Amino acid sequence: MGEALVGPERPILADKAYTELKSRILRSALAPGEKLSIDGLAKRLEISQTPIREALARLEAEGLVRRRPLSGYKVTPLLTEDEFEDLFGMRQLLEPLAAKRAADLDENLHDGNVANNLRMLARTPDFDSDAALSRLDFTEADKRFHNYVGQLSGSPMLAKAIDRLDAHLHLHRSYIEPKSIAETEREHLAIAAAIIERQPLTAAEAMSLHLENSRSRHATAFLRSEAVVGPRKEVNRTP
Amino acid sequence: MGEALVGPERPILADKAYTELKSRILRSALAPGEKLSIDGLAKRLEISQTPIREALARLEAEGLVRRRPLSGYKVTPLLTEDEFEDLFGMRQLLEPLAAKRAADLDENLHDGNVANNLRMLARTPDFDSDAALSRLDFTEADKRFHNYVGQLSGSPMLAKAIDRLDAHLHLHRSYIEPKSIAETEREHLAIAAAIIERQPLTAAEAMSLHLENSRSRHATAFLRSEAVVGPRKEVNRTP
DNA sequence: ATGGGATATATCCTATAGGATATTGTCGAC
DNA sequence: GTCGACAATATCCTATAGGATATATCCCAT
Predict the structure, then answer these.
(1) Hey, which of A85, B28, B100, B162 would disulfide with B200, CB 3.0 to 4.6 Å?
(2) Residues A222, A223, A229, CA angle at the centre, nearest 5°?
(3) Are residues A135 and A176 in the same domain?
(4) Is A230 in a helix, a strand, or coil?
(5) CA–C1' gap, B136 and C15, in angstroms
């Protein structure tokens, strides 16, 4: 009864549009650099223009789409190499600290659920087949694990900062090699174990190592993809 | 000539609404917790509802306003003591690093302009009178200085993170004591000097010290204001 | 063949109207 | 005097139409 104060929190159309668009961008159903037509999206999603516009504004503030005043929206292009390095520099700054704090948090927060959640999220989903779907599941699971560690840090601002960084990495996740999934799971489990056993320094080091490995795993695929798309140039010329 | 490719970048109504609303929130013309009526704002600002809605969505993503699905927007309430400490913890993590990196950046970026800008921004504006306006100018100058140091770090993501944090601090800036303005200027100048003279460690330490002092300056005013408003309670009852 | 200019199209931006919902105030009963 | 329910109001949410602008196509001149 007293819970009714928070309201039903019924998701409105703008939230639906936001979730749908974000999901499509994260799974690269909307390619980087692709132009986004407002009423085109409105007709495709069968939603009016105003909610679409609202969702787009939110996504722009998050950095997932860019806007040019009288020209329209487009999906944020792929990160340059400098931006890529910058991103991982920030992760190295934030995430080991989050892991460290998560490890020496008050024990009242360390009930059984936390350990279970951590172990569950550290595992990558079963991937008998290397289909595109399972690879998508993997990227989702990876994101959730890192976000959960952020939440466990006890610092809401730190958690939100980590979440934002993860959102910027979405495009490059799809280039992950299938074999690296197992490596990722091992590293995640090492981090989880250190947190559960409350060893702050070990947790921080495990996270730092994981990030370094993740960086090099992405970097190879990153350079490869850059060779395909072309080195940071728009392709609008017709020969 | 070739610059015409970037477009005129003419600000549209949504940008105007965004800037105006953000400005009013930052100067507390819109009080924390105050309810924001969409068409009320539309009539006040003489702008249609759609741009207002768009600006509000962007501000929500930035954390300056909160939204409840079928209930409307309201200005983000004052930070609790925990959130306040969390905020300064993040600043201590990010800003000294930014100062350090700014100090040992490539010298091609260290032309005369940077030194001049730094010295200019470090200074607080002349405040012969302690009027509300000059106090507002001070908060703006302080924000600009910290943001500029963030930009000088050479890491766009670090700069943006610092900018976001500053936006969250807006509400408490208005409680600054007039006498602390001079102290702030001295500390800013020390940071600027260390960066100009390219002494990374000194710059980082100066920034860290400045943040610690700033934290205690805010904290005293923070607790005082909390005593006035009441300890974290809405005041909607009529006796 | 290439460059410049004008027209045509598509898209965005803005404004207004109607339907649905939460909130507020009032009334009555216990 | 307090609690609960009901009705009226205000507000938000959604949809559609018209005006303004950038982009693309086509044509002509050089």
Answers:
(1) B100
(2) 90
(3) yes
(4) coil
(5) 35
Of all residues in chain A, the percent with pLDDT exceeding 90 is 29
Question: When comparing pLDDT for A165 and B228, which is higher?
Answer: A165
Among B36, B59, B75, residue at a domain's last position: B75
Question: What confidence score (pLDDT) does residue B238 get?
Answer: 32
Residues B103 and B199 in one domain: yes
Is residue B24 one of the residues assigned to a domain?
yes
Q: What is the ipTM of this complex?
A: 0.81
Q: Are strands B35-36 and A65-68 parallel, antiparallel or unpaired?
A: unpaired
Q: Are B63 and B86 found together in one domain? A: no
CA–CA gap between residue A217 and residue A169 (Å, rounded): 13
What's the Å distance between residue B236 CA and nucleotide D12 C1'? Answer: 22
**CB within 8 Å: A90 and B155:** yes
The answer, yes or no, to whether residue B10 has pLDDT greater than 60, is no
Cα A194 to Cα A103, A183, B137: the distances in Å are 7, 17, 48
Domain that residue B18 falls in: 9-75
Please check whether strand D approaches the CB of B239 to within 7 Å: no
CB contact A158 to B (< 8 Å) = yes
Please enumerate in sequence order all residues whose Cβ is within 8 A of that of A26, keeping only pairs 6 or more positions apart, or say none.
Answer: A139, A167, A170
The CATH number of the domain holding residue A204 is 1.20.120.530
Same domain, B65 and B87: no
Q: Is the pLDDT of residue A148 over 80?
A: yes
- What local confidence, expressed as pLDDT, does residue A129 receive? 52
Q: Which amino acid is present at A162? A: I
In tens, the pLDDT along A16-61 reads 888 888 888 887 788 888 889 888 888 888 888 888 988 999 898 8
Which parts of A176-233 are beta strand (E)?
none
**Which of B29, B54, B75 represents a domain boundary (last residue)?**
B75
Taking only the tens place, the pLDDT of each residue in B127-166 is: 555 555 566 677 788 889 999 999 999 999 999 999 988 8
How far apart are the C-alpha atoms of B167 and B177, rounded to whole Å? 20
Q: Which of residues 94-153 of A touch B (CB under 8 A)?
A: 94, 97
User: Is strand D less than 7 A from the beta carbon of B70?
Assistant: yes
Give the count of alpha carbons within 13 A of B85, CB side only: 5
Q: What is the dihedral of CA B52, B57, B61, B64, to 10 degrees?
A: 40
Asked if the Cβ of residue A50 lies within 7 A of any atom of strand D, the reply is yes
Are B215 and B81 spatial neighbours (Cβ–Cβ below 8 Å)?
Answer: no
The owner of tokens 């090492």 is A190
CB pairs under 8 A between A and B: 90
